[in-house]
Design a protein that fits this description.
The complex is a heterodimer.
Chain A: H1 3-17, H2 25-37, H3 66-90, H4 96-118, H5 121-155, H6 161-164, H7 186-216, H8 222-232, H9 237-249, H10 258-282, H11 286-294, H12 299-310, H13 312-327, H14 331-334, H15 356-363, H16 369-396, H17 414-421, H18 426-431
Chain B: E1 31-40, E2 43-53, E3 58-62, H1 69-76, E4 86-94, E5 97-98, H2 106-112, E6 113-116, H3 128-138, H4 146-156, H5 160-163, H6 176-189, E7 194-198, H7 206-219, E8 224-228, H8 232-238, E9 241-246, E10 254-260, H9 261-266, H10 271-277
Helix pairs in contact in B: 3-6, 4-6, 6-7
The chains are: A mainly alpha, B alpha/beta.
Chain lengths: ~425, ~280
């Protein structure tokens, strides 16, 4: 056995010997080092095994500790007491919202004062900004959660699954206050389905073609068209409804019908899908287009066989998000589909037609609790549809990995979805090309 | 500045023929460039390049960055005009036919003069087999036997043994070097007469580079190869002829010296060529 290996074994023995608590860490370390450097002579007695060095306990100097929590809680409670005294005892103010606002302001101010006293002023300002930012984020989450829970709370207890998806409102009896098993929203689901389906069939090819024009054709009109598309996405949806109403219904080209509703929805769908598809096409590497051209492909072939297939999952996402965008639109339907109480899927082209948003819009204002419940149930169904669409969109927005499976979610997956609803500055578009 | 597309050279009248179809497809072709100039917008980047790229030989274009090698390469298969604002002048002849002559279509030219790019760019939405056949699909011609063509092209590209059992996988699943060889196979599948390579190994590791160089030597008997490279050793290893491009300060790129690779590297006549090939600058 060479001296080196012996040393290693001894060192191992030293390392694995431990377990006991050691206080004189430094001394032990010195001992350990000597045994590392000098190979032990067989004649000399071995030094006793040394306990291992103990790790210092980790600290997190910037961590949010008990003291900080205490300051926040104390500030919240003091603010509550202070505002209660001022609000209800000293002055004759009233109202929950005013009280909440005053409490929040008091809470922020007291947090600053307390932190400034306990720590120092710069930290206090930092902390206050953090408090405001965090509470804004929490507020948004709370609003969404509240809306969802509220609709569920209003809809689910009275839901009659058997009739909700099989019956329309034809057999509703005004005098019967408990007739929920007699009514449903199937007419509205079918109506919405037809209207959205045709809107997508008309709108998506146009949107994809426009996006291809914006991204693949380097023409003089690109900038103008992009500006128009961006402006179009800001069109109030009720204006889209008025447009179809005055152009096609007042002129007796169409009657109130699902088809008229589809056309109004196309106006909403076009700009948003165009923008997302354009964004998706832009990330297709230009090297692929060059490769295709260099193989002798005409430009239309390049777009059709290389660019669009490469962007396929993104285009699918764009379409799903587009559906999610229009499925809940109410204003364009008001004077196009008009709404109906009965199932008439055959009347898509020439008859008033129901739609989920219209059921909510008309029934929630009625006096009968049955109809109000039905409106909330329609809202529940609508939210479920949108949720499914968003989940699908999130799945499709992830590109496939090398093994052909979709990779796990990443934070930037939501970018595409955000672009659906937030306009992109035109200047930025110009820079990136 | 009078450069317009297509160029009008005096020789056009003597060579009115247009290569239609593929009478001599698969035969290596000779490229004669005469008086080639190139502009991006109003900026002249390449000035009066005369260069003959011999049939069945490998010609390397060497020179420092920004000297117009790649621009010249892209002019040979009409990819230069894809860039917005790009202009050019002069004539480029493939076996005596001016590819910028009247009636010549860019698509037709590109089928005869293929190109491999710096960054491997297999079509990610297509399988390996579909990638090889992509060029034929684009030109709407179907080969007599697809399987044979796939095997032949991939063998020439030096990739067949590695992928013969996974032709159905997506092209993006291959390694970088394999992707580049797939791109070479894809270009060869349309039976070009000339193959242009724009720094095909600069994104690859040494082992993959060696494989590509072997491939280049093997295909040279069937197709004329023009390769842009920054790597002196590579130029020496693979090329028969060599052209040294240089753009001096505030000057457009020019060909300083061209000739046999052994001459350019062994006994160059121009001092600048000597300095460059010996690593004195660039």
């Amino acid at each position: 056995m060479t001296p080196e290996t012996t040393t290693a074994i001894v060192a191992d023995g030293v390392l694995s010997a431990g377990g006991q608590d050691s206080v004189g860490t430094f001394e032990h370390r010195k001992g350990g080092e000597t045994s590392d450097i000098m190979p032990p002579d067989a004649a000399t007695p071995q030094p006793p095994p040394l306990p291992p060095r103990r790790l210092p306990s980790p600290i997190r100097p910037s961590a949010f500790g008990a003291q900080d929590v205490l300051i926040l809680v104390a500030a919240a409670m003091s603010s509550l007491c202070l505002v209660w005294v001022v609000f209800y005892q000293l002055t004759s103010l009233s109202g929950g919202v005013g009280f909440l606002v005053c409490w929040y302001v008091g809470f922020v101010v007291l947090t600053w004062i307390a932190t400034a006293q306990v720590i120092e002023r710069q930290v206090a300002t930092d902390r206050v900004v953090a408090v405001i930012v965090v509470s804004a984020a929490l507020l948004i989450v709370a609003i969404v959660v509240f809306i969802v829970l509220w609709v569920c709370y209003k809809a689910i207890p009275s839901i009659h699954w058997g009739s909700l998806f099989t019956k329309d409102q034809k057999s509703f009896v005004v005098t019967d206050p408990h007739a929920l098993d007699q009514v449903g929203v199937v007419h509205a689901i079918i109506g919405t389905f037809e209207q959205v389906l045709v809107a997508v069939l008309i709108g998506v090819p146009f949107a994809v073609a426009t996006a291809v024009y914006l991204n693949e054709v380097k023409g003089w009109g690109v900038k103008t068209v992009r500006t128009v598309v961006t402006a179009m996405s800001g069109t109030p949806s009720v204006v889209a409804g008025i447009f179809i109403y005055s152009m096609l219904i007042l002129t007796h080209v169409l009657t109130y019908s699902g088809f008229a509703a589809s056309l109004a929805l196309v106006v909403i769908l076009l700009p948003s899908v165009t923008r997302v598809v354009e964004e998706v096409l832009r990330v297709v590497p230009s090297g692929l287009r060059e490769a295709s051209l260099a193989l002798g492909a005409p430009e239309w072939r390049t777009v059709w066989s290389v660019v669009l297939p490469t962007a396929r999952s993104g285009v699918v996402t764009a379409v799903l998000l587009g559906i999610a965008r229009i499925v809940g639109e109410t204003a364009p339907l008001l004077f196009t589909a008009f709404g109906s109480q009965v199932m008439n899927w055959k009347g898509y082209f020439n008859h008033d037609q129901g739609a989920l948003p219209l059921v909510i819009f008309s029934d929630v204002r009625q006096a009968q609790p049955v109809l109000i419940n039905l409106a909330f149930q329609a809202a529940f169904v609508l939210m479920a549809i949108v949720l499914v669409l968003f989940v699908l969109a999130r799945i499709f927005s992830r590109p496939k990995g090398k093994n052909g499976k979709r990779r796990k979610a990443r934070p930037d997956d939501d970018d595409l979805m955000a672009r659906m609803f937030v306009p992109i500055p035109i200047e930025q578009n110009e820079e990136t090309r | 500045m009078t450069a317009t597309l297509p160029s009008t050279s005096l020789d056009d009248a003597e060579h009115p023929q247009v290569f239609t179809g593929t009478p001599s497809a698969g035969e290596p072709g000779q490229v004669d460039a005469h008086d080639v100039c190139a502009w991006f917008g109003d900026r002249l980047v390449l000035e009066t390049v005369d260069l003959v790229m011999e049939k069945s030989k490998v010609t390397a274009l060497i020179g420092p960055s920004g000297c117009g090698k790649s621009t010249f390469l892209r002019i040979i298969n009409r990819m230069h005009e894809v860039v917005p604002g790009a202009q050019l002048a002069g004539s480029v002849k493939l076996d005596g036919v001016d590819i910028y002559g009247p009636g010549q279509r860019a698509m037709e030219t590109r089928r005869h003069i293929g190109m491999v790019f710096q960054k491997p760019n297999p079509f990610p939405a297509m399988t390996i087999a579909e990638n090889v056949l992509a060029g034929l699909k684009f030109s709407r011609t179907s080969p007599a036997n697809k399987d044979d063509l796939i095997e032949e092209s991939l063998t020439k590209g030096g990739l067949w043994n590695e992928v013969k059992d996974r032709l159905g996988e997506l092209g993006g699943a291959l390694s970088g070097g394999q992707q580049q060889r797939l791109c070479i196979a894809r270009s060869l599948a349309v039976k070009p007469r000339v193959l242009l390579m724009d720094e095909p190994c600069s994104a690859l590791d040494p082992t993959s580079t060696l494989r590509i160089e072997q491939t280049i030597k093997e295909i040279a008997s069937e197709v004329t190869v023009v390769i842009v490279t920054h790597n002196m050793q590579q130029a020496q290893r693979v090329s028969d002829y060599c052209a040294f491009f240089l753009a001096e300060e505030n000057q457009p790129g020019r060909v300083i010296e061209a000739g046999r690779t052994t001459t350019i590297f062994g006994s160059p006549t121009d001092q600048r060529t000597f300095d460059y090939v010996n690593g004195q600058f660039g």
